[in-house]
Design brief:
The protein is mostly helical. It has helices at 4-15, 19-28, 42-53, 57-61, 70-81, 86-96, 103-108, 118-129, 134-147, 155-162, 169-185, 187-195, 201-213, 219-226.
Length: 231
C-alpha cells in the first residue's frame, strides 16, 4: 500500500509527464514495462530531488522499496547523490542497488560523497563487483571507470574488471565501455588486455569498437586496435 509520501511524489511526477519523452525512454529500456515509465526528463527529476532532500520526506521516500515507477527509482538515486556523508551514502546504495532493474537508473547515480573518500570507495567497489547482481556489478564497474582511470588509476582495478565473466548483456557492455575508456586514458596499461585476449570475444570486440569511435584516442592507436579484432 502506498504511503502518503509516495502518493504525493507520484502525483508530482505525473504532473511533470511528457508522453513523447516517455515513448523515447521506453525504446531505450526494452526490459522495463511501458506502464512503469511516466516520462519525466532528468533535469526535472534532479530539481525535484534537491527539493525533497531539504524535507523530512527524503528519508521516508528512500526507505520505500521497491518503487512502482522507473522515475521513482531515478529520484531515489538522485537523492542518494545529495548525501554528504560517505558511509551514509554507501548504506543507502546497499539498500537500493538490489532493486535497480535497468541500465539508465544504474548509470545516472553519481554520489558526491565519493570524491573525497577514494580509498574507502575502492574497497566498496570490489564488494559490489562480487555481488553477482547485474546492476550492482555494472555500477561497481562504472565507479572504477569514473574514479580510477585518472590520477587514482591502479593496475589492479583493470585486472578486476578483466576477470569478470557474465552472461548479462548490461554487465558485458559496461566492461567494454570501461576498457574503451581505459584505452583513452591509460593506453599503455589497457592495451595488453586487448593484445593478450584477456576479455571475452564479444567484450573484446565491443571495447575496440567503442575505442575506435572515441575522439580521445589517436588515429595511430585506432588503426592498431582494428588489427586486434577477433573472429
Amino acid at each position: 500500500m502506498n504511503t502518503t509520501v509516495e502518493k504525493n511524489i507520484q502525483k508530482h511526477l505525473f504532473a511533470l509527464q511528457d508522453m513523447k519523452y516517455q515513448a523515447f525512454q521506453c525504446r531505450l529500456m526494452p526490459n522495463i514495462a511501458p506502464e512503469r515509465v511516466i516520462g519525466v526528463r532528468t533535469p526535472a527529476l534532479r530539481t525535484l530531488a534537491k527539493e525533497i532532500t531539504k524535507t523530512p520526506c527524503a528519508a521516508e521516500f528512500i526507505s520505500i522499496l521497491p518503487h512502482e515507477y522507473y522515475e521513482e527509482n531515478n529520484l531515489h538515486g538522485f537523492i542518494i547523490e545529495t548525501i554528504k556523508d560517505f558511509d551514509e551514502a554507501v548504506r543507502a546504495l546497499d539498500e537500493f542497488l538490489p532493486y535497480v532493474d535497468n541500465w539508465a537508473t544504474c548509470d545516472q547515480i553519481k554520489p558526491k560523497a565519493f570524491k573525497k573518500n577514494i580509498p574507502e570507495l575502492y574497497k566498496k567497489i570490489k564488494e559490489w563487483i562480487k555481488s553477482g547482481r547485474t546492476y550492482t556489478v555494472r555500477f561497481g564497474i562504472e565507479m572504477f571507470m569514473n574514479f580510477f582511470l585518472d590520477g587514482d588509476f591502479t593496475p589492479e582495478s583493470a585486472e578486476i574488471v578483466a576477470r569478470i565473466r557474465s552472461d548479462e548483456y548490461y554487465v558485458n557492455m559496461m566492461i567494454a565501455w570501461y576498457f574503451a575508456t581505459a584505452l583513452a586514458k591509460q593506453y599503455e596499461a589497457a592495451v595488453p588486455y586487448i593484445e593478450q585476449n584477456k576479455l571475452d570475444i564479444w567484450v573484446h570486440n565491443k571495447a575496440i569498437q567503442k575505442a575506435v569511435e572515441s575522439c580521445r584516442i589517436t588515429a595511430a592507436h585506432k588503426r592498431y586496435l582494428k588489427t586486434l579484432k577477433r573472429m
